Amino acid sequence: WGRNNSGQLGDGTMMDSPLPVVVTGLTDVQSLSGGLFRTCALQLDGVVQCWGSGMTSPQVVAGLGTSTAIIGGRGHNCALADDGRLRCWGDNSKGQLGIGNTTSTDIPTLVPGLENVVHVMAGQEHSCAHTASNQSYCWGKNLYGELGDGTRLSTTLPSLVLNAADQTKLVGGWIHTCARSANGTVSCWGDNMEGQLGNGFSENFNTPQTVIDVRLGLLSDGFE
Fold first, then answer.
1. Is residue 77 part of a domain?
2. Considering the domain boundaries, does residue 54 fall inside one?
3. Is residue 27 one of the residues assigned to a domain?
4. For position 182, what pLDDT does the model report?
5. Which of 195, 169, 189 is nearest to 180 (CA)?
6. pLDDT value of position 10
7. What is the CATH number of the domain that holds 67?
8. Which of 85, 145, 208, 223 stands 20 to 30 A from 174 (CA)?
9. Partners of 40 in beta bridges
10. Half-sphere exposure of residue 33, counting CA atoms within 13 Å on the CB side?
11. Any long-range contacts for 170-173 (C-beta under 8 Å, 24+ apart)?
12. CA proximity to 208, closest of 222, 187, 177
């Protein structure tokens, strides 16, 4: 329900709706991922379907194979395959696809240099992945330090997050990132003007900062 000017409700129309409407043609959905004008669904069989951005009903995303996870940023999406490799597509104006350039594409494209990815996340215009080797990588826009690599330089390829050896799950806000470690502690980095990093300060940080007095089993993130 809600705004539907780009077909983002997936009901075959572009009419706004204040009430829930059925997304047409979807079955056996295991997870969803939303962006600014587009939504994607991962089915139990590993097929990804997306709608919005002018498509009023779900369309299968070709070239992905069997997917195990999907994420969505402001205008881009990524899908994790069952072989541990990551493919991204959509807006790439800040390098958020991680494919070595800033050319946007509707074709899912392999993110080079990443193997055995076990978890992925997307922010506004950045993306991150955690690998089985217990390392985290981020790429894309880095104006506020949201990549966590100790710089504020945007990058079109995966960049290693500093001090991330114990991370097990990543979540993304609009322009900040958080991670949960194996012992339940949480660290965050990036935009902190509203105190969203939880470290007692209101300045931006480009490396992971421990959230004060927090141990979690589950972790979720929001806009700010």
1. yes
2. no
3. no
4. 83
5. 169
6. 97
7. 2.130.10.30
8. 85
9. 33, 50
10. 26
11. 170/119, 170/120, 170/121, 170/128, 170/129, 170/130, 170/136, 171/121, 171/219, 171/220, 171/221, 172/73, 172/121, 172/122, 172/123, 172/126, 172/127, 172/128, 172/221, 173/123, 173/221, 173/222, 173/223, 173/224
12. 187
Tell whether 84 is covered by a domain.
yes
Handedness of CA 194, 127, 153, 116 (dihedral sign): positive
Structural domains in the chain (count): 1
CA dist 25 and 190 (Å) reads 39
Range of the domain at 102: 61-215
Q: Chunked in runs of 10, what are the mean pLDDT values of the chain (224 residues)?
A: 94 97 95 92 98 96 96 96 98 98 98 96 96 95 97 98 83 89 89 90 93 57 46
- Sorted by sequence, the CB contacts under 8 Å of residue 185 that are 6+ apart come out as 210, 211, 214, 215
